[in-house]
Amino acid sequence: MELHIEKDTKALSASLAEWINNYIQQVLAKQDRFTFVLSGGSTPKALYALLAESPYKESIPWEKLHFFWGDERAVPFEDSRNNAKMCYDELLNKVPVKAENIHIMRTDITPEESAAEYERIVKTYFEGSETTFDFVLLGMGDDGHTLSLFPGTEVIHEQNALATSFFLQAQDMYRITLTAPVVNDAACVAFLAAGAGKAEVLKQVLKGDRNVDLYPSQIIQPVKGQLHWFVDEAAAALL
């Protein structure tokens, strides 16, 4: 695991944008496509805004990138809580990505159908490959969750499905999510976490005893790939 600490969220976003650009170039020097799992939430917005501007708008070969999502709230695309909508608004509508290379978790069908469809898409891309996604961007909630793997939920321990759905009682909504095994088979995973509200849970996730039911982010441990944590000084205060 590699830990990257920056002064504040602005410096953090700038550092990660540069790192992602370099990583994309390295991967595409060896292969023809780059598969990128986007994260929802508020923290990545500044990162996406930077990637949508110069120099990255020009330097990244967007036509070779294929986009996926780690999880989704089962709300209409037009809903402000929809992760895909946020990513379109902040990034995808502003760069020359091919529409057929964007794979949202659909919310115009049932959550069960959406998860099953997503699993089929993922299998089509990666069946027979040593790794799955080239890059998975993850966030971490103040409660230690990542993807839609929330503390105390059965989905944390899902071993068979690549994508699944479930009703999250605490939020009174269905969630659609990739599971830990498909993310742990990725070539590279990066967490992005910022703010003093993350300090205690980040300390527990990185330095505390292993308890994935309490701190689900601990379950993300790439089998063959890289693991990076990009955090600001406020989040890293207790490390």
From TrEMBL:
Domain Glucosamine/galactosamine-6-phosphate isomerase: 8-229
The enzyme's E.C. designation: 3.1.1.31
InterPro entries: 6-phosphogluconolactonase_DevB (IPR005900), 6PGL (IPR039104), Glc/Gal-6P_isomerase (IPR006148), NagB/RpiA_transferase-like (IPR037171)
Any Pfam family hit: Glucosamine_iso
GO molecular function per UniProt: 6-phosphogluconolactonase activity
Keywords for this protein: Hydrolase
Reactions that this protein is recorded to catalyse: 6-phospho-D-glucono-1,5-lactone + H2O = 6-phospho-D-gluconate + H(+)
Enzyme class name: hydrolase
SUPFAM superfamilies (UniProt xref): NagB/RpiA/CoA transferase-like
Keyword tRNA-binding found: no
Recorded metabolic or biological pathway in which this protein acts: Carbohydrate degradation; pentose phosphate pathway; D-ribulose 5-phosphate from D-glucose 6-phosphate (oxidative stage): step 2/3
NCBIfam families: pgl
Task performed by this protein: Hydrolysis of 6-phosphogluconolactone to 6-phosphogluconate.
PANTHER family in UniProt: 6-PHOSPHOGLUCONOLACTONASE (PTHR11054:SF0)
Recorded family membership: Belongs to the glucosamine/galactosamine-6-phosphate isomerase family. 6-phosphogluconolactonase subfamily.
Protein name stated in the entry: 6-phosphogluconolactonase
Species this chain originates from: Dyadobacter fermentans
